Amino acid sequence: MPTSKKRINLTLEDSLYNQLEQLRKIRKFPFLSSVVIDLTKQALELDEDLYFAKIAQERKKEPVLSHKKIWEEK
């Protein structure tokens, strides 16, 4: 049965391929593609975390308002 998942083709240096193959064996993944998918997901999560950390750092420059001040009736 054909898959509906998207495919990409990668060309890797031997050293990177060997590292991925070693990681596959250590993590006991059945396929090398499983390692690449897992690492890609981790990288995307890290990238998202770094993005929001940058936004949070920029917000620290803004004045801080207390909970009471924000919710007080005017």
Describe this structure in words.
The protein has 74 residues and is mainly alpha-helical. It contains three helices and no strands. Helix 1 packs across helix 2. The longest helix has 28 residues. The termini are far apart.
Structural class: mainly alpha
Mean pLDDT: 91
Bin the helical content: 55-70%
Strand content: under 5%
In the predicted model, the low-confidence regions spanning at least 5 consecutive residues are none
Sequence-ordered SSE layout with sheet pairings:
Elements: H1 14-27, H2 32-59, H3 67-71
Sum up the structure in keywords.
mainly alpha, elongated, 74 residues
Summarize the model shown.
The protein is an all-alpha fold. Helix content is 64%, strand content 0%.
